[in-house]
C-alpha cells in the first residue's frame, strides 16, 4: 500500500472515477461506493484514513454516514461534498463531525489538499469518541493559560478540545478583555496545525484601502509603491490558522471577498490574474453582536453563516467570579517573572474581597492593569487591600458599545466626568486607559478631543 486508504462515496460514476483517478496519481489507494449501502459494506470490511462522501446519495444523506461513523467509534476523518451555495448543508456537516467540506464543482487539486489535511489530523472527528493519540505538545500549556475551574471556563475548554481537530470555522464572541485571542491560540495549539503558523490580524486596525493587499497580498506594479510581489496574511498562515480579530469591523466590500476565499479556499493577490490556493483554518472573534449587525445590514448574512459554524463564548469576568483568585495569582506570577522578582506577591483575603467588589467592565485586561499598578506602587511579598485602587465610579459599559468610535446619535460612549476620572487615575497614560476601556488608542484620542480633554 503506497499510502493511507481512502473511500469515495459518490453516486455519479463519472465524478467518482474523476476523484479516484486524481488521487491515484498521487499514490493514494482508493475504494469506491455509489450509495450508503455500498459505503456501509466497504466500511464493514476495512478501516480507512479518510472517507469522502457526497451530501446527497440515492438511499440517504452524507450526514447519515457521518453519524454512523461517530456512533461506531470509527477513526476515519470525513470530508463532505456539498452542492454549490448550500452553506446550510456545510454547517450541518461540520457540526455533525465532518473534518471539512468541499463545494461542487471540486477540482482535483482542492480534493487532494483537503485529504492531505485530513490525513495529518491523527484523531477522530469532533463528534466521535475521545482521541486515540495524544494532543500536540503545545496543547497543554495553551490550555493551562485558560485559567479557571468554573462551569463557564470548563465549557470553553471542552468545546475547544472537541472542535480543534476539524477544519470548522470558529467564531469567538465576548466583551473586550476576556481573552479571545488566548482561546484562538489554544484552539490552534490543540489542532493538527499546531506546527504551522498562527497569524493574528486586527481587522479594525488596518485602513480599509490597505485591507485587500494586507490580507491577500499584491503583485509588483499593482499600485503605486508596489515595487515587488508581496504575500498577504492568508499566504503567511498557509498550513496553519488565521485569526481575524474584530471581524465585525470589516467593510462590506471586503466581506464579499472574504466569503469567496472561504468558499474557494483560494486568494487572488491585488494585480494578479489567477487565484492561489491557501490551506488555512479561519478563527474569528468580535466583541460586537454580529447577529444584530446582520439585521441592521452592516454584516453579510452569508458570511456570518460561514464564520459562525462553531461558536465559543469567552465569558466576562463577572460571569465567573469564582475564578478571580486563580486568574489574579497567574497574572501576578507572570508580572513577577517579567520584572525579575524572586517570587510573586500574595494577595491577602482583604485584597481579594476588595477585588470582588468591582464589576470589571474591562474584564481580565482591566484586572491585569490594576494588579500591575499595585505591584509597581506597593512592592513586597504581600498585596493588601490598600494596594488595590479601584475606580471611583465603576464604568458599566454595555457590550457592543465600548469599541464603537461613534454611536448612532454620535453621543459619547461614557460621560466626560467618568473618562476624565479614569485618565487622572491612570496619570493621563492614554495607552493604559485605552486598554482598560477595551478601546483603540485612536478612539480614546477621538473622544478626548470631542470632550475637550486633549
TrEMBL record:
Keyword Transcription regulation: yes
Modified residues (4-aspartylphosphate): 54
Ranges where the Response regulatory domain occurs: 5-119
InterPro entries found in the cross-reference section: AAA+_ATPase (IPR003593), AAA_lid_NorR (IPR058031), CheY-like_superfamily (IPR011006), Homeodomain-like_sf (IPR009057), HTH_Fis (IPR002197), P-loop_NTPase (IPR027417), Sig_transdc_resp-reg_receiver (IPR001789), Sigma_54_int (IPR002078)
Keywords (A to Z) from UniProt: ATP-binding, DNA-binding, Nucleotide-binding, Phosphoprotein, Transcription, Transcription regulation
Biased segments, Pro residues type: 126-138
Segments for region (Disordered): 120-139
Gene Ontology molecular function: any one: sequence-specific DNA binding
Entry annotated with the keyword Membrane: no
Any single GO BP term: phosphorelay signal transduction system
Domain Sigma-54 factor interaction residues, every copy: 146-376
Protein name: Transcriptional regulatory protein ZraR
Species for this entry: Tepidimonas sediminis
Amino acid at each position: 500500500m503506497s499510502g493511507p486508504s481512502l473511500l469515495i462515496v459518490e453516486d455519479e460514476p463519472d465524478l467518482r472515477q474523476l476523484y479516484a483517478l486524481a488521487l491515484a496519481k498521487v499514490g493514494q489507494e482508493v475504494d469506491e461506493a455509489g450509495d450508503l449501502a455500498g459505503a456501509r459494506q466497504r466500511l464493514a470490511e476495512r478501516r480507512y484514513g479518510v472517507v469522502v462522501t457526497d451530501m446527497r446519495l440515492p438511499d440517504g444523506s452524507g450526514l447519515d454516514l457521518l453519524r454512523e461513523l461517530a456512533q461506531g467509534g470509527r477513526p476515519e476523518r470525513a470530508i463532505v461534498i456539498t452542492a454549490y451555495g448550500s452553506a446550510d448543508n456545510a454547517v450541518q456537516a461540520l457540526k455533525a463531525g465532518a473534518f471539512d467540506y468541499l463545494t461542487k464543482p471540486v477540482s482535483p487539486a482542492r480534493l487532494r489538499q483537503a485529504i492531505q489535511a485530513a490525513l495529518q489530523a491523527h484523531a477522530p472527528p469532533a463528534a466521535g469518541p475521545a482521541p486515540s493519540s495524544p494532543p500536540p505538545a503545545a496543547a497543554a500549556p495553551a490550555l493551562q493559560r485558560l485559567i479557571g475551574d468554573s462551569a463557564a471556563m470548563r465549557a470553553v475548554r471542552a468545546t475547544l478540545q472537541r472542535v480543534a481537530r476539524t477544519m470548522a470555522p470558529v467564531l469567538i464572541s465576548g466583551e473586550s478583555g476576556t481573552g479571545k485571542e488566548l482561546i484562538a491560540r489554544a484552539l490552534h495549539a490543540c489542532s493538527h496545525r499546531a506546527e504551522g503558523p498562527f497569524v493574528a490580524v486586527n481587522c479594525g486596525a488596518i485602513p480599509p484601502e490597505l485591507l485587500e493587499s494586507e490580507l491577500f497580498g499584491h503583485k509588483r506594479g499593482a499600485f503605486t509603491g508596489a515595487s515587488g510581489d508581496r504575500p498577504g496574511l492568508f499566504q503567511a498562515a498557509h498550513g496553519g490558522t488565521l485569526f481575524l480579530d474584530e471581524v465585525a469591523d470589516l467593510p462590506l466590500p471586503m466581506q464579499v471577498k472574504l466569503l469567496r476565499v472561504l468558499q474557494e479556499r483560494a486568494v487572488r493577490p491585488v494585480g494578479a490574474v489567477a487565484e492561489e490556493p491557501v490551506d488555512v483554518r479561519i478563527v474569528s472573534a468580535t466583541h460586537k453582536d454580529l447577529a444584530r449587525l446582520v439585521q441592521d445590514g452592516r454584516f453579510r448574512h452569508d458570511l456570518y453563516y460561514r464564520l459562525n459554524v462553531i461558536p465559543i463564548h469567552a465569558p466576562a469576568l463577572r460571569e465567573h467570579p469564582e475564578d478571580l483568585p486563580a486568574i489574579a495569582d497567574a497574572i501576578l506570577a507572570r508580572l513577577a517573572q517579567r520584572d525579575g522578582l524572586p517570587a510573586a506577591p500574595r494577595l491577602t483575603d482583604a485584597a481579594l474581597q476588595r477585588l470582588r467588589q468591582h464589576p470589571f467592565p474591562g474584564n481580565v485586561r482591566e484586572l491585569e492593569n490594576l494588579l500591575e499598578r499595585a505591584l509597581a506602587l506597593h512592592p513586597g511579598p504581600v498585596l493588601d487591600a490598600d494596594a488595590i485602587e479601584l475606580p471611583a465610579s465603576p464604568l458599566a459599559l454595555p457590550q457592543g458599545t465600548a469599541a464603537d468610535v461613534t454611536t448612532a446619535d454620535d453621543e459619547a460612549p461614557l460621560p466626560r466626568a467618568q473618562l476624565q476620572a479614569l485618565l487622572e487615575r491612570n496619570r493621563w497614560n492614554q495607552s493604559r486607559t485605552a486598554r482598560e476601556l477595551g478601546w483603540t488608542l485612536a478612539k480614546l484620542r477621538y473622544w478626548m478631543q470631542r470632550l475637550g480633554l486633549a
